[in-house]
Amino acid sequence: MTINYTKKPAEPYRKTLSPSSLYKGKCARCTWMIYWHNFELPSDMSLKSELARRQEKFLDGCPTHAIDPSLQRGKITLYKGKRKSEYVTINGEKTRWAFYGELDFAINYENGEFGVADGKVSLKKDTEALIKDYKNQLHSYAFLLEAPESGATQRVSSLGLVQWRIDSTYPSDSAKWGFGVETRYIPVEKNDREFQEFMAKFIGYIEGEFPEADSECYDCKWLKDIGFDYGA
Q1: Is 117 helix (H, G, I), strand (E, B) or coil?
Q2: Are 97 and 16 in contact (CB under 8 A)?
Q3: Residues with Cβ < 8 Å from 71, sequence gap 6 or more?
């Protein structure tokens, strides 16, 4: 039986919002297909995931000044474990959507404040481009802590990315082979109003009908080039 991917089933395939689906504010059509039909092109993230896991373990328990001297004094710790938020409210109305996922790092500052940091293996040098790609994902992690489905709330005062970028820096006593990793912390402004506006748009096109493809979406272009049948 041919699946008509342009039509909504009785219920969406995914019942909760994934923070990673907010990456770059993905193409509306691709996002819609993920949530209603569990359809997306495969990607091999195994190497990046392994690199990230190794770096995460290395940073677990480190003082903040080991990441960036400009950070307030505190300690960064791994904060793994799936969490679910309360339902997202848009324009005063509760939606059927809650976030479910896990964040990488929590920062416990000595002054009692709390931060969220997310580790990324990326070759990008452009700081603003990285912030644009990941700011909404970071805000969703903050929402998981500030509005949990159950348990105590944790007020998040700072957001940031811990970027691991492969470079040619080596320890002085090492052989010149393999690769080194440059680590940098990128602060991201916390803007709840802007995030609320983004979520209104994001949930709006999930709940809408089959959307147009983003003109810059490589996945949609490729599906068009191979003549993929959406079943309409």
Answers
A1: strand
A2: yes
A3: 64, 65, 107, 185
- Average confidence (pLDDT) over 25-30: 86
- What is the model's pLDDT at position 176? 55
CB 132 within 8 A of CB 26: no
Q: How many CB atoms lie within 10 A of CB 181?
A: 15
What stretch of H or E contains 180?
strand 180-188
Region of poorest pLDDT, from 49-53, 65-69, 150-154, 186-190? 49-53
pTM comes to 0.88
CB-count exposure of residue 173 (10 Å: 0-12, 13-18, 19+): exposed
Q: Which of 19-28, 39-48, 200-209 has the lowest mean pLDDT?
A: 39-48
Residue type, 109: Y
Residue 219 contacts residue 30 (beta carbons within 8 Å):
yes
Residues facing 121 on adjacent strands? 164
Q: How far is CA 176 from CA 9, 24, 41, 99, 203, in A?
A: 56, 36, 37, 44, 49
Distance CA 229, CA 232 (A): 8
146 vs 153: CA distance, rounded Å: 5
Q: Is the pLDDT of residue 46 over 90?
A: no
DSSP classification of residue 214: P
Give the tens place of pLDDT for each residue, 70-84: 889 999 988 878 999
| Cβ(1)–Cβ(226) below 8 Å | no
